Amino acid sequence: SQQGEEDPQALSIQEGENATMNCSYKTSINNLQWYRQNSGRGLVHLILIRSNEREKHSGRLRVTLDTSKKSSSLLITASRAADTASYFCATDAYLSTGGTSYGKLTFGQGTILTVHP
Amino acid sequence: EAGVAQSPRYKIIEKRQSVAFWCNPISGHATLYWYQQILGQGPKLLIQFQNNGVVDDSQLPKDRFSAERLKGVDSTLKIQPAKLEDSAVYLCASSFARATGELFFGEGSRLTVL
Hints:
The complex is a heterodimer of chains A (117) and B (114).
Chain A: E1 5-7, E2 10-14, E3 19-24, E4 31-37, E5 43-50, E6 55-58, E7 61-66, E8 71-76, E9 85-97, E10 100-107, E11 111-116
Parallel strand pairs in A: 2-11
Antiparallel strand pairs in A: 1-3, 3-8, 4-5, 4-9, 6-7, 7-8, 9-10, 9-11
Chain B: E1 5-7, E2 10-13, E3 19-24, E4 31-37, E5 44-50, E6 53-56, E7 65-69, E8 75-79, E9 88-95, E10 104-105, E11 109-113
Parallel strand pairs in B: 2-11
Antiparallel strand pairs in B: 1-3, 3-8, 4-5, 4-9, 5-6, 7-8, 9-10, 9-11
């Protein structure tokens, strides 16, 4: 089952503009991660924010997390044509089964970002 | 550092045939994952290994899918017999940490079932 739901499904902007993607989830999490996927390629990790953090920055990326609303947002500032890709949020929940504890990463449906030169 | 290796990159088969995908994770990564990504959707976890033991296979269609991890390193995902709805990209990923931390993905194996 998909834990996260992302909004919008598609986003089209001009180079230099900011892009904001939102993610909502349903259950308690340890952390939330954002990944990027270029067409026909594997996913690449962008940033991880822990459940006790509210905001995190990495270069042109800014991620916020509101655990009371079970939501997160990814902001890409000063976008470039090379940022064109699909972006996925993934929630990391700690589960236990048969005496074994493990982290399970569940992905949302993704946002397709197109940045026009 | 070498990344996650997967093969084959592309495979086309007829329905009811079988197919196998191979994955070699990053050296030292104890956790290995197989995800299925249908076109236009996010990846869905099929199976998660911790060393060579399975910790989660709740979404693996066990009547047709099987997976093993040899000696806690390489892994093989098999589909037999394949159905049309199995057309997807099969992504292998690995991670160092068991509980949290980033996943490192391979390029994926794209399966088309005709």
